[in-house]
Specification:
heterodimer; A: mainly alpha; 14 helices; 2 strands; 2% strand; B: mainly alpha; Ferritin
Chain lengths: 389, 240
């Protein structure tokens, strides 16, 4: 696939044929032990994309009566797509193990996006957020080891480093330093718009997941750690959400979101190693082509414009699902001391007082991310396996 | 269908990714922990939180007039009937969950060993006795004027403990040995718990309740032997 508009001739699966049964939605999960970590990464990511599709369409429906039914029709399918995808995660994943997997998604996918992104400011923003999710992985890995006695690398399968990044205790910023400049809808490349929709959706999902499971923990430090990192994820949603142009019409945003879904299912189908899961990605790629075509029809009808205005132009290679270890290390070495000042990135020494004050108050009664990771050094099999008693 | 353990492409260990592991260990050596200290920091915080915590909940005041009098009477005499009521509530919850856990294991055994297998018959027998025990505890709680439908603090905690066992037994991917291992956890606790409950009933001045529990304790001894024997036989046959 080189352009989205090039595949618009393919109408995909008609909406009325996008059907499910409860049994297939709640089908057999993947194996935590025997499936490749990137299969789980794709599953978590695409659940995030689908739940964001629901979120956007609900938002549009609040402001447009005419679109309520067509949006509801598509949302119903998306609800079932999201279910079928999310239910692939097996129950032998503890919530904390799934959390480690979520952070692996954030790291590996954001790193891939940062390298593919043509707009330098947007790419900088992805690298900035990347180092924070990278650090979350280290803190959660320490928590998993010290709470459940488990090795995070059993989930990560060696693809992702378990070391400190930009320290989580320093992620907490005043909201005025979390807003970012946006792309210009008329000049931005389609892939820039897709990246913003993709990463915003992924971070939204992570935020919602932490908000939901944080209270399930008995351990007070785990509860506090989730409170702390969920707050950072809200910052990330704020950050990435502000990358897209607010002057885009809602139908334009709908179109970009459907294009994102097409692009992502195509990326997943291309690289999936589990044949059963690959068949799901291929099936849903056809579903998304159906959704995209419906969005195009409404775009023409309501805005009187050609969807090619939005969807034309070349699309770079698919999102690469592979270990981004070398890139992450380079970014870590070069940019760990970056902070944000308004919409700009500055050295740590220039961080605004507003963020320092905001952070000082939040951190004043103890910092879970520091406590759980004090002196934590990963070893094969976990911290205890690397020690002599 | 889940059967016994088999060799496959398990990706979780470091031996499956030697190059990646080498890179990961290099990173660990180069980028050191940025917070001084060790795992003791968690312990210190947990101590502080334990000191500061509220309790999970309370033992309900018995609702019947007879119960109120009895409780008040025992309280006056320096006894703490709420301890016995709490533990009885725990036993009732445990036995009630136990019936459900055995039902889950019976479904697994039917799928993997056959509907008429010896294993299914043994599991059904134990399930029926767990049900009897639930009713036995209910009767004991009622004789104290307490409410067998209330969830006492120990009953609540018993439910939390049983969650892992429930997850193992209801996961269609687990095999018979894994399911039986989960039931062994239950039976080991159940056995010790009945022993303790009989002692508590006697110490609390309720010899009638203690007496009524003797048969249950003997049946629980039998459950434990049966489960241990079934696990041993199954695995030894496979390993030889």
């Amino acid at each position: 696939m080189e352009t989205i508009s090039g595949i618009l001739d393919n109408k995909g699966t008609p909406l009325e044929k996008q059907t499910f049964t409860w049994k297939e939605m709640a089908g057999k999960p993947i194996s935590k032990l025997d499936d490749d970590a990137f299969t789980r990464i794709r599953i978590i990511l695409m659940n995030g994309v689908e739940t964001d599709a629901l979120r956007l369409k609900h938002g549009i429906a609040r402001f447009n009566k005419e679109l309520r039914l067509p949006l509801a029709d598509i949302r119903r399918v998306e609800q079932h797509q999201a279910t079928m995808i999310n239910w692939l995660i097996g129950a032998d994943h503890s919530p904390l193990e799934t959390t480690v997997a979520y952070e692996q998604v954030a790291i590996e996918v954001t790193a891939a996006v940062a390298q593919n992104e043509p707009d330098p400011y947007q790419a900088q923003t992805y690298r900035f957020g990347l180092l924070e999710d990278f650090d979350h992985l280290y803190r959660y890995s320490a928590m998993l080891d010290r709470l459940e006695g488990k090795d995070a690398n059993n989930i990560l399968q060696g693809y992702t480093d378990i070391v400190p990044g930009r320290k989580t205790s320093e992620h907490h910023r005043h909201p005025e330093n979390d807003i970012r400049d946006n792309y210009e809808k008329s000049s931005a490349a389609l892939i820039t718009k897709i990246h913003a929709a993709l990463i915003t959706g992924a971070e939204y999902q992570t935020h919602d997941y932490y908000q939901t499971i944080g209270p399930l923990f008995a351990d007070p430090l785990a509860r506090q750690l989730y409170a702390e990192i969920a707050s950072v994820e809200e910052q990330h949603v704020t950050q990435y959400g502000s990358l897209s142009d607010p002057s885009e019409s809602y139908i334009e945003k709908w179109l970009v979101h459907e294009a994102t879904e097409v692009y992502m299912y195509a990326s997943c189908a291309e690289q999936e190693t589990n044949p059963r899961i690959k068949a799901i990605w291929e099936r849903f790629l056809d579903y998304e082509l159906g959704h995209l075509n419906i969005a195009c029809e409404w775009f023409k009808r309501i805005e009187g414009r050609d969807p090619a205005e939005i969807l034309a132009g070349p699309l770079p290679k698919m999102v690469e699902f592979k270990s981004q270890r070398e890139f992450v290390r380079q970014v870590l070495a070069a940019e760990v001391n970056l902070r944000s000042s308004g919409t700009q990135y500055v050295d740590k020494s220039q961080e605004p007082q507003s963020s320092l004050d905001y952070r000082a108050r939040l951190n004043s009664e103890g910092i879970a991310s520091n406590i759980v990771s004090a002196g934590y050094q990963w070893a094969p099999g976990g911290e205890l396996m690397g020690k002599n008693f | 269908m889940a059967t016994s353990a088999k060799v496959g492409t398990n990706f979780t260990g470091v031996q499956m990714s030697p190059q990646d592991t080498k890179s990961l260990l290099e990173a660990v050596e180069e980028i050191l922990p940025d917070v001084p200290g060790d795992a003791k920091a968690i312990k210190l915080e947990r101590v502080a939180r334990n000191e500061d915590a509220d309790r999970i909940g309370s033992v309900p005041v018995p609702g019947s007039a007879k119960g109120m009098l009895k409780t008040a009477f025992d309280m006056v005499r320096g006894k703490s009937p709420e301890i016995l009521i709490d533990k009885l509530g725990e036993r009732l919850a445990f036995e009630r969950s136990g019936v459900r856990l055995y039902e889950a294991m019976i479904a697994k055994a039917k799928a993997l060993e056959g509907t008429e297998s010896d294993l299914v018959q043994v599991l059904k027998h134990i399930r029926d006795e767990e049900f009897e025990h639930m009713n036995l505890v209910r009767a004991a709680i009622e004789t104290l004027g307490a409410d067998p439908t209330a969830m006492t603090p120990c009953a609540d905690v018993a439910g939390v403990k049983a969650l892992g066992v429930l997850q193992v037994l209801t996961d269609p991917r687990t095999n018979v040995a894994q399911g039986m291992g989960a039931l062994l956890t239950i039976e080991l606790e159940d056995n010790a718990a009945w022993e303790l409950l009989i002692e508590l009933a006697e110490a609390g001045g309720h010899p009638g309740i203690a007496e009524s529990f003797q048969k249950a304790k003997e049946q629980e001894d039998d459950h434990l032997i049966k489960i241990k024997t079934l696990i041993r036989r199954d695995l030894i046959v496979q390993i030889k």
